[in-house]
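Retry 2 of 3 after timeout on previous attempt. Resubmitting structure tokens to design endpoint.
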């Protein structure tokens, strides 16, 4: 059944590919019947695919809509956890079809006009040139080299070019309205809802720096703020930048009524500035009772993620690398607070690997409390660091959690399979892509469900 569930997630992608092929072929066939040449067939067929995907690209980033759908029955049939990956596929298709569309018309004009300047006196042609330039900038700055490595701003701000792209596309091709009016309305309402909830500043209750360059921010929880373990949000701190919004998992449990927390590892320019700002503010004597009151924080969230479905799984295997532990901490805190009331869990396995042993420090007390006072019979925790672990008197209880050898993932997961041959397991992973490439084929081979966070 688990293998069937994994295969079923391919159905939407197959339907998507067939829809694109059908759009292209039907449109090209219509112009073929009008005795149009090959260049027009290519240009008009690719244009139809652009219309479809330009509408879909808005739906895939309607975050409130996707978050709500994940909690419903549709999540069983649609790979909603992959909506960002699907968004990327749609973006690649738009860019590729834009090149085909433009290239076909350029060749036709070269063969038909003595000068390329002549056809560009018409609005449809020079607006098309502007559209190609816009989509090229969007696509180029969406590549991994810009999404990471301290160049996130290029990716973030270039994506706002989708607004003039969509608007100009309405004028360039009036037929686009048939595809995009409803998606544009949905996306517009989605953005309005997000704007309404993110315009209220949140107060910083505390800021604590942990070993391993990890900053814990606790924010005052709004009274109407509801979320699930694994959800995330975009943070903006205007004292650093009024335009930058960065995603962070909510590491507190939804059962905590007074605050929400995020754990932020120093990585890149923006997070380094946040660390420095909090350290400077904490040492200031201007307002010792509430030193962070003058630093408003804005939150766009909660937004659903693959890990948001942890509470719906029967049994879970949680695998974290580095700061990727945060969604799982929120999940375990929720279990600790609600276990006595109701839960269907039979077993929870947690694996956490990190290069530095310092990365574990902020969780050791929680792990010890979780295992000794609550549920040692259904929770298994294993920690692995490339550095030798050193234990103080305060965290001696965590010593048995550490393993001294590299974790052999195929052996570990096979052991779990043999211990629970009839049970359904979902593997949640949050961390760099490298480890995911190792885990995914093993998980699928064993018949487990695999869900990966976008790290």
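Retry 2 succeeded. Sequence:
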């Amino acid at each position: 059944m688990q293998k069937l569930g994994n295969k079923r997630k391919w159905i939407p992608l197959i339907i998507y590919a067939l829809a694109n092929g059908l759009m292209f072929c039907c449109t090209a066939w219509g112009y073929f019947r009008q005795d149009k040449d090959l260049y027009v067939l290519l240009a008009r067929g690719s244009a139809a695919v652009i219309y479809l995907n330009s509408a879909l690209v808005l739906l895939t980033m309607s975050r409130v809509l996707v978050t709500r759908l994940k909690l419903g029955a549709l999540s069983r049939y649609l790979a909603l956890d992959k909506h960002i990956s699907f968004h990327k596929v749609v973006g690649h298709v738009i860019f590729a079809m834009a090149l085909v569309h433009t290239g076909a018309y350029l060749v036709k004009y070269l063969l038909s006009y003595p000068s390329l300047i002549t056809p560009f006196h018409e609005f449809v042609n020079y607006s098309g040139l502007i559209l190609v330039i816009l989509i090229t900038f969007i696509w180029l700055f969406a590549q991994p080299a810009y999404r990471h490595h301290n160049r996130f701003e290029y990716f973030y701000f270039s994506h706002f070019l989708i607004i003039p792209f969509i608007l100009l596309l309405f004028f360039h091709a009036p037929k686009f309205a048939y595809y995009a009016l409803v998606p544009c309305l949905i996306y517009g309402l989605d953005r309005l809802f997000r704007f309404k909830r993110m315009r209220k500043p949140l107060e910083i209750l505390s800021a604590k720096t942990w070993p391993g360059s990890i900053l814990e921010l606790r924010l005052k929880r709004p009274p109407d703020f509801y979320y699930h373990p694994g959800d995330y949000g975009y943070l903006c701190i205007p004292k650093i930048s009024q335009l930058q919004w960065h995603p962070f998992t909510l590491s507190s449990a939804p059962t905590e009524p007074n605050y929400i927390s995020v754990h932020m590892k120093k990585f890149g320019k923006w997070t380094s500035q946040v660390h420095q700002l909090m350290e400077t503010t904490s040492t200031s004597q201007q307002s010792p009772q509430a030193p962070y009151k003058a630093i408003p924080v804005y939150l766009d969230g909660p937004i659903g993620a693959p890990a948001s479905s942890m509470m719906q799984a029967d049994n879970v295997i949680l695998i974290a690398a580095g700061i990727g532990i945060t969604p799982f901490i929120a999940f375990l805190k929720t279990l600790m607070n609600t276990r006595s009331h109701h839960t269907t869990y039979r077993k929870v396995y947690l694996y956490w690997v990190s290069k530095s042993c310092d990365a574990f420090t902020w969780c050791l007390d929680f792990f010890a409390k979780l295992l000794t006072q609550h549920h040692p019979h259904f929770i298994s925790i294993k920690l692995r660091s490339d550095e030798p672990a050193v234990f103080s008197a305060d965290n001696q209880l965590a010593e048995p959690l550490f393993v001294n050898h590299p974790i052999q993932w195929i052996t570990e997961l096979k052991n779990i399979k043999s211990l629970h041959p009839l049970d359904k397991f979902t593997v949640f992973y949050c961390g760099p892509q490298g480890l995911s490439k190792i885990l995914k084929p093993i998980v699928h081979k064993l018949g487990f469900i695999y869900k990966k966070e976008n790290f």
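Attempt log closed. Confidence is low (pLDDT under 50) at residues 1-5.
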